[in-house]
Records
---
Amino acid sequence: EPEVTQTPSHQVTQMGQEVILRCVPISNHLYFYWYRQILGQKVEFLVSFYNNEISEKSEIFDDQFSVERPDGSNFTLKIRSTKLEDSAMYFCASGGWGANSPLHFGNGTRLTVT
Amino acid sequence: GQQVMQIPQYQHVQEGEDFTTYCNSSTTLSNIQWYKQRPGGHPVFLIQLVKSGEVKKQKRLTFQFGEAKKNSSLHITATQTTDVGTYFCADPNTGNQFYFGTGTSLTVIP
């Protein structure tokens, strides 16, 4: 079964540094998402992406965050200047042909900001 | 943003007991999805409910969508240790924001 892949699985960075989290969604999917989950807490929506542009973003997704789909396969989340509170698990997800399509999640990237 | 609340936040049950989690929305939902996240894992899609009053079953799991389409429930009969995890409802309606509920963490005591 096709799956969403995320790299790296764990990223450690110093406060103020830029990080790029990478995702390869399922190839024929059209909707892409980033979520964040602080340990033991809820899965928080960050941003959705469709047709090569951001569809929606939450209040968490401020100017420090950006997303790109630089080619036909990758989907990246960039955090420009990381803060301690950005430490969390970041999940990429993709959905098929409609905005209500079930989401397929990657295994996540655990970001630790020191 | 859209608020989808779940209760309880945590539930501990003896193996073999039943378990129910409830999902409540502040607005009417066109449909609702349920996901399960095992400890250390990622959310995995379980089911989608669309119709008012809809009931769907997957083996020991029963999913319901309220008549007013503002609430939903997941009931597990005779829990097993493999049921351990956090169960989330999700609202894919509000534009493309696809909000997840607050989750119910289930612990099954053998």
---
Amino acid sequence: GAGVSQSPSNKVTEKGKDVELRCDPISGHTALYWYRQSLGQGLEFLIYFQGNSAPDKSGLPSDRFSAERTGGSVSTLTIQRTQQEDSAVYLCASSRGGQGNYGYTFGSGTRLTVV
Amino acid sequence: DQQVKQNSPSLSVQEGRISILNCDYTNSMFDYFLWYKKYPAEGPTFLISISSIKDKNEDGRFTVFLNKSAKHLSLHIVPSQPGDSAVYFCAAILNAGGTSYGKLTFGQGTILTVHP
């Protein structure tokens, strides 16, 4: 597609439920990042996929969070047993190898609300 | 531990005047810095960047200044336009080797409002 697509755009879930957030990167982009923005905070790094390398999971806040990227394309961020502090906007970004952060394209995000 | 800080949550400027957005960082190993701009309901978009080997980078109306000894950078927009109204984030990369590769550490953002 022309841009990074994220779905759903909004998600309200009950505390304790699992949620899956989806990211469709730009075709051909080998790098994919997940960030989240909590209210009044900056964007917090979560996880980074680059080609076939092992992902950098150093930003995942707890073992309730996991992400996978299938076929080097679509990525799914899963949050198990959601808590109210998980409420945030989850942003996905992709870039073509060699462009570095100049070539970052962010999606519009998924606003997650845990009630 | 907020390693990149934007201490002004908001800034209001008259059209045609200069906007100065500030950013401070604590980790001296950050060596590449970027500014992103974000409109509501959209993802951030890249604006301008600077390597730690430079102290200034200019692109049209936008100039970024870096003061490494003070661990401070600033974004100047001149002249400011109403379309510049957005949230501005500064971001930094650790041990980038002067490149723009690697995960970004973002500040909290500053809401810029430019009045006609």
---
Amino acid sequence: GENVEQHPSTLSVQEGDSAVIKCTYSDSASNYFPWYKQELGKGPQLIIDIRSNVGEKKDQRIAVTLNKTAKHFSLHITETQPEDSAVYFCAPGGSNFGNEKLTFGTGTRLTIIP
Amino acid sequence: DGGITQSPKYLFRKEGQNVTLSCEQNLNHDAMYWYRQDPGQGLRLIYYSQIVNDFQKGDIAEGYSVSREKKESFPLTVTSAQKNPTAFYLCASSLGQRQEPQHFGDGTRLSIL
């Protein structure tokens, strides 16, 4: 099965600075790389995803970069704001035909310091 | 609005009892999933279903059962065989195709009295 490691487990940044979270996976057949944001007491929400034919994707202040050779992908948040404080999960998957199984990392708790 | 509804939000169970968690979606998704989340940990897959009347075990299926009689519904039963049932349970759905995202409900927190 897929082994997923996410670093760091906690991250504190000053408001306005950038945050980067890295996810390393083991299954070279994985071809779908989403990032989810989970707020307290809520379910995870998809914030950005990337497919294996693309190396980078950006959506306003959020970007994801993918290095398939090294089997890792990263979440980049620029100009951080207090509402960015949450737990973030990577969940690589998509390696089995017709099956959208994802394997979740253990999460990164991001705290934005005002 | 389309989405996934989990109920109840909080659930209490006495030891030795079975309890069923509800999950309904109106997104017309084929695939549905149940995850368990423990404090400070990621999500672990319990069961998933790619189509009505079919489902497969995930990584931690022991002590749980599911049914998929309707496309919209995927209830999870936590049986008395589950020795450590206290957790946050999350239901998700997706189109069921590769490279498509899963959409989550807001979870049910189960506690043992």
---
Amino acid sequence: DTGVSQDPRHKITKRGQNVTFRCDPISEHNRLYWYRQTLGQGPEFLTYFQNEAQLEKSRLLSDRFSAERPKGSFSTLEIQRTEQGDSAMYLCASSFGTGVEQYFGPGTRLTVT
Amino acid sequence: AQTVTQSQPEMSVQEAETVTLSCTYDTSENNYYLFWYKQPPSRQMILVIRQEAYKQQNATENRFSVNFQKAAKSFSLKISDSQLGDTAMYFCAFMKHNNDMRFGAGTRLTVKP
């Protein structure tokens, strides 16, 4: 499968725990994006990387959220001290070069109890 | 800030009929991109069609076409000869400068046999 992959697909955690999600973009795609999608809403932009550089962060990305893309390939999104309001689908997308089309992964559904 | 509005939370259409989904957006930019994405139930988001703001000609992809009215900031999607596989959430999205994409709240389309 050469599409964008995300792991895990589902995560249930207790409030206050830390969680980490992984995204593997399409090979050679230099741009990688994270979005959050709550039930009944469209995705909201969180942050994006060009290669290993994090170029833009949304105000939605509070201090409890951190994203990395250390070698310009896969990326991780960590949420510390999770809250019930963090329950959502976390989507990753990638794009190539200056292309505008973003290819989405299947998402990680987080449930905070 | 850019906002995207989809005023139709739900729509339905008979198989083989035509349906139009509405989208309006607000921006002060002159150059930008508009997209329609499809998110089938429990499946990942895929691009249906895109439109560059500098192009006057409306984009067409097989059974999918758009009516782009730049002055009115309107970007509707027409689906012709609707098929059962078109059943999905449809998101209108706006993007500038090849970074964060802003999505509308979505329209849930059901194609009835």
